[in-house]
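Build the 3D complex.
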Amino acid sequence: AQSVTQLGSHVSVSEGALVLLRCNYSSSVPPYLFWYVQYPNQGLQLLLKYTSAATLVKGINGFEAEFKKSETSFHLTKPSAHMSDAAEYFCAVMETGANSKLTFGKGITLSVRP
Amino acid sequence: DTGVSQNPRHKITKRGQNVTFRCDPISEHNRLYWYRQTLGQGPEFLTYFQNEAQLEKSRLLSDRFSAERPKGSFSTLEIQRTEQGDSAMYLCASSSLAGVQSLDQYFGPGTRLLVL
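Done.
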């Protein structure tokens, strides 16, 4: 079975500071990994995904994530936070093969202080 | 590309009533998914379709829940005899069958259900 752990429910950073949102996964087979962002009253939007092509993945809005198999992690980073980054962020895993369902973590709310 | 649309956006109902939600996927997408999101949690998978075939159902989908996708286009999710525990945001997503692009699920804005 696959699962995702996002420790903590809320992260607060200052505008211009580094953003680091942690995600650890568990999967019995090599996984695909995703980060989604959800702005208030909007649907989830795909930020980036890992498909085994490269361990460092770049996404939209300046975000990137690094797949570390030894640590079973897929942390999301952005060098400089912007006020518009304030949202809820979800890490998700999908097992390779025919099964295409996403298993999400609980999500982390990112606040950006002026 | 108009994106995934869901109707209604909000639904308030009384316990015991039946409700039906509709999802219109992106037009060329063959796969359609339903998820449920409760407060403070991430979305949980309910079921998915490839064209008109329902290929997987979560154990979360009790016999009060039924989903259809006639003709492989829009989908409906019906909840019979609603319970207060059904209160949640119901999310629909779609994806294509084309290679790596099939991994990208595009989500609609959701239908928020409140059962009184």
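The interface with chain B takes residues 4, 9, 32, 34, 36, 41-46, 49, 51, 90, 92, 94, 99-107 of chain A (CB under 8 Å).
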